[in-house]
Structure formats: structure tokens, C-alpha cells
């Protein structure tokens, strides 16, 4: 019958788990510092008629007045 040596498996997986944890923490810290996601968000500075339609605002109401 096949006998599994759990100590050998755990001793091999421990360095991999520790290094994966360190990499994940470093990636999260770097992403928080540089805020890469906000750099690529596209939000118009001025609300034009096309953007107003996306927000649910009827741009023809300004022309009626």
C-alpha cells in the first residue's frame, strides 16, 4: 500500500506558500501606492450631451429653455 510522507510534502510546500504570500503582499502594496486602476478610468471632465445620455439626463431639456 502506498504510504504518504506528509512531513516531506509539507516541508516542500512551505517555501512555496511563503514566497507566494510575499509576492501577493508586494503586489498589493505596489498597486495601492501607484493607484494604477484610477489612472486608466475614463471620466469626462465636462458633461457633454453624449455623456448626459449615459447618465440618464435628457440633453434636449436645456435646449427647450
Share in β-strands: under 5%
Order of helices and strands: HHHH
**Unreliably modeled segments:** none
Round the Cα radius of gyration to an integer and report it.
27 Å
Mind describing the biggest β-sheet?
A: none
> What's the overall geometry?
elongated
Number of strands: 0
Average of pLDDT: 78
Contiguous helical run count: 4
Number of domains: 1
Termini separation: 87 Å
Secondary structure category: mainly alpha
Roughly what percent helix? 55-70%
Model description:
The protein is mostly helical and 65 residues long. 68% of the residues lie in helices and 0% in strands. The chain is built from 4 helices and no strands.
What tags apply to this protein structure?
65 residues, single chain, mainly alpha, 4 helices, 68% helix, elongated
Task: Spell out the blueprint of helices and strands.
Layout: H1 6-34, H2 36-39, H3 49-54, H4 60-64
Task: Give a concise summary.
This protein has 65 residues and is mainly alpha-helical. The protein is built from 4 helices and no strands. It has one domain (6-64).
